[in-house]
Amino acid sequence: MFRRKFISALLLAAFVLPTAALARGGAVYQAPKETIDKIKEEGMKNSQVMETLSYLTNVIGGRLTNSPNMKRANEWTRDQMTKWGMQNAHLESWGPFGRGWELKRFSAQVSAPYSFPLIAYPKAWSPGIAVAPPAPAPDPKGKKSKMDAPTPPPSTVVTSDVVLFDAKTEADYAKYKGQLKGKIVLMSDVREIKADFDGYGTRLGDKELLAMANAPDPASVQRPTGGQPNMAAMQSRLERFMNGIKRTKFLIEEGAALVVDNSGNGSGGTIFVSAASVAADVPANPMDFFTQKRLQPWDKEAESKMVPQMTVATEDYNRLVRMIQAGEKVQMTVDLAVQYHDEDTMAYNTVAEIPGTDPTLKEELVMLGGHMDSWHSGTGATDNAAGVAVAMEAARIIQTLGLKPRRTIRVALWSGEEQGLFGSSNYVKQHFGEMIGGPNIFGIPQPNAPKPELKKGADYDKLSAYYNLDNGTGKIRGVYTQGNSEVWPIFRAWLAPFADLGATTLTMQNTGGTDHLSFDRIGLPGFQFIQDEIEYDTRTHHSNQDVYDRIQPDDMKQAATIMAAFVYQTAMMDEKMPRKAMR
């Protein structure tokens, strides 16, 4: 017990207590205590964050990029921020992205040797099932009616034998040749599930926070020489991916009716499911995967290169495999009806502002946001209606209190994040600039890419900082500073009033996979907050359990309050947020 308290004291002393630290030769700006107290009062006692989150999840639902639900979320958030008094609320297009996709009807069950329902979900952008109706019986008298009946539409229901497809070699593929037409095909192996003795939910403890606080600047970490880190692992992963493409192509050519895989994670009926696979030619060298242009499932041309696909919860999937391995003849009945939307291939971010009041600084920007798109099997609560609701609530707090920021505060709610940070990266390109050449936005080296070169946009020098939230429902514990040591004295002072709410840690570490990277890549200060894990990776991230009931309300209130304080103080500083050197 003493050691735990001692570590906590060290954390507070080293990383959050107010100090006389200076930023760029001047004193760190801190809002008056009474202003911070008002922000805390409004954020913790008068919060509307859960009402916002409930509407996005329970009413609108899942928000796949370019789907009707995503467009509805764009419009609702725009209108809601306008209602709160924010200005210039609008939808800002980017793209073209591709077609939208909407699930119209779905059910799946085993129908022989006996019936039982399956916990399953189709993959995003999967084609629907289309079974041609049987040809009409000929008139026994050889006569035709004066008005032939119209041809009925294809059925969306298939009942067929279930086949376990276990092909790893060319000889295996030959064995299945001509055997899969009209069949429902299982693609995955059995996945072992072990008892969970530790529980799904976790919070960051003192040990983990101290390790983060002591982490070195990522730029100072010695990287493997030769330019080929983890090449063996990368090659193996790519070969597995290529084999998946090859199998998909084979199943289309063989005329399979439906492809089924095992949830790659989760138990107890939790399904982790994302996008459908598209068949493609397999390159002789898997590393060519990086340089070849590939069809994505949202491309209209991809429809003919996909077979209907769904993911089944592991307990049900394992049972199907074991029944077949025991010699049982299994049949399944699946109803899958979908609708593609090609009427508008552009996608949209929602943007709104609190105008700055300083005659000189009002042209400068402080931004905050998170991605509003989600996957489709849940309602996108922790990924990432939580971040959207927190960003909106942070802006509402500032607006409701009548605070007068010197710089303009701009909320941006992104789409296309799940497909590759598309919404934020296109926005950054349109407004601030882009990096030509070098690694991609995820830091992956691109073969034969030219030397990185920054091409600045018109507003590059106007942005002070961007703050992002996208790690689930957990409370804010601090900030990833992305290797920017100059912001430490500033953030240290700003975290101090929130030590009692558990926000105490700064780390030089980077964190990846979300929209602040679009800013960071071109040298603009973009920050993601450190959050408690809760059940993010174990239960909710990209799963059918990503729903409102998994949200922690007090954590959401705390996060919105801290984000409001950070954004407001950034907007009030004499200077913009320090920028790290381009690397």
Largest sheet: 8 strands, mixed
Oligomer: single chain
**Overall mean pLDDT score?**
90
Helix content: 25-40%
Q: Helix/strand-derived class?
A: alpha/beta
- The order of strands across the largest sheet is 3-12-14-13-17-20-18-19
Radius of gyration from the CA trace? Answer: 27 Å
- Distance from N terminus to C terminus (CA atoms, Å) equals 43 Å
Bin the strand percentage. 15-25%
Q: Total helix count?
A: 14
Number of domains in the coordinates? 2
Describe it.
This protein folds into 2 domains: 50-97 and 346-417 and 450-572, Zn peptidases (Aminopeptidase), CATH 3.40.630.10; 100-133 and 153-190 and 230-341, 3-Layer(bba) Sandwich (Glucose Oxidase, domain 1), CATH 3.50.30. Helices cover 30% and strands 19% of the residues. It has 14 helices and 20 strands. The strands form 4 sheets. The protein has an 8-stranded mixed beta sheet, with helices on both faces. α2 runs antiparallel to α14 (553-572). The longest helix has 24 residues, at 231-254. The protein is elongated, with a radius of gyration of 27 Å.
